[in-house]
Amino acid sequence: MKKQFAETSRSSAVAENITEDIIIDILSRLPAKSLMRFKCVSKRWRSLISDQRFAKLHLQMLSLETVAPSQKIIKSNPLQIIDYEALDDDEVNDHVVVESHDLGRDEPQGLVGSCHGLVSLAVYGGFLVYNPTTRESRKLPASNLVATYECFHGFGYMSTTDDYKLVHGAFFTADDGSEECVLEIFSLRYGSWRRVPSEDVPLLDGVGIYLNGAVHWIMDHGSGYRTEQAIIPFGLATETFEVAIPIPKVEGVLFEGVGIHEGRLLIYDFTSISFEAWVMNEYGKKESWTRLFSIPIDGFPDHKFYVIPIAYTRSGKIVFQIDVSEMILVNPKDGTYKNYPIEEHDNVESAIYMETLVSPYIGHEQ
Amino acid sequence: MASSRKITLRSSDGESFEVEEAVAVESQTIKHMIEDDCADNAIPLPNVTSKILAKVIEYCKKHVDASKAEDRVNDEDLKAWDAAFIKVDQVDQATLFDLILAANYLNIKSLLDLTCQTVADMIKGNLFPVRNEWLNFTFSIANRELVLVCLTEWVAHRRLFCS
């Protein structure tokens, strides 16, 4: 004890020298969830951790980490957060794994995109951008575009202006019978909707996936045996659709969805016998498409509509959402799985997000 | 051809260390001093004790050697060396903070990254399986907020009750 006290009195001279820079460096390496707790340690730390410049540094540190940054699943209807790594742990029960979030009157109808820890949600009458880690939520002003069934959405980051953009597009049949597309973009920094030119927009549907400054959808050309598939990127900087990326033609497979796996674009399909997933190892290079998994699904629970891959755990297992009724954790090596019922509801959607301190109010700090 | 000039560094307690220029310039601070022609005699480092300076020199030597080797030292091997260098029983906790301050003052980015990451890992609870070591660590932290944070993290992880 004596030695420790002696060390402490010497250390108190050192105290003055532990500058703010060093504290910032150390804190930037800690998980966002921990940092949220540390806000109550002192006023100095509260203001430091709330500062968006620190949030940006913290995000950069996350992207440097060799271990995957902490990620969770967000699920709509009802809005819940699922710790999917904990799903992997045999000891843990459901209470620990699922956390309910309440956005008051703005009950989300659907998930529209996820980027840098911000999740974009469709709510009645408009959209919301939410950070489930900090619980900051920003309601966006209503767009001029009326939501129709033929909608597509995307949400992503633009590095040139350090901004996040929400893309909202819809197809209409014009009076003369032709298909028209109207495209609107909301910039978090700018704070309003803008209509952008949209000729010859490919017939897209659903939620796009953000990667490398663009949002990506899968698209089919033609039909039956002659169906050609491609990935259509929408550049957030150019605000135009860019060159389509061809998808390999695989026997018996018609890819139905896009995702991200370890920083690479992933496409997947459920055939009657297996779950197929391919990744594009080099962005844009169609020769670099490689089969990642082919998992037999004969043991999977019965499903009526869809089986969607949501996340990949550190131990290499895959989380799937089955219809609107359950999530399963599958071991790709042998196809075995554990299942977790979720509250059944119409229109349950899930997405993965990173735990960050990024604020949806960027440029409009409260 | 890199010069193999020797540079003398003097610690706060008056000890002199002779090192190759290539090793000395791992420190951006020393590098600027040399460029500004202040290095004819020994370079005084009033903020760094001999104990710490010896460790810093050991670190810089290893990293310079690693990049010079004919067949470049494997990244994995260097990482392993770094881990052993900073390991808790090699470097007691008080020394860890002195190393952070030295790396900051001498502007040696990779050493600063290594030491700050080590403290972050300690806070996350990754490095101390035994309770006593936690007490030692919190005693040596010269920052009230960091101490509070270590303790709260421990409670969060419930390690206090397990070890």
Task: Outline the structure in words.
Chain B: Belongs to the SKP1 family. Chain B: This is SKP1-like protein 1A isoform X1. Chain B: Residues 6-64 form the SKP1 component POZ domain. The complex is a heterodimer of chains A (366) and B (163). Chain A is an alpha+beta fold and 366 residues long. Chain A folds into 2 domains: 2-62, no CATH class; 70-354, Neuraminidase. Chain A has helices spanning 2-15, 20-27, 32-38, 43-50, 52-64, 84-87, 94-97; strands at 71-75, 80-82, 98-100, 108-115, 118-123, 126-131, 136-139, 151-158, 163-173, 179-187, 193-196, 206-207, 209-211, 214-221, 228-235, 240-241, 245-246, 257-261, 264-270, 274-280, 289-296, 307-312, 318-322, 326-330, 337-341, 350-354. In chain A, strands 11-10-9-8-12 form a 5-stranded mixed sheet, with no helix packed on it. In chain A, strands 13, 14, 15, 16 and 17 form a 5-stranded antiparallel sheet that branches. A 4-stranded antiparallel sheet of chain A has the order 3-2-1-26. In chain B, helix 3 packs across helix 5 (93-106) and helix 5 packs antiparallel against helix 6. In chain B, a hairpin with a 5-residue loop joins strand 1 (6-10) and strand 2 (16-20). Chain B has helices at 21-24, 28-35, 50-68, 75-86, 93-106, 109-124, 131-140, 144-157, 159-162, and strands at residues 6-10, 16-20, 43-44. Chain B has a 3-stranded mixed sheet.
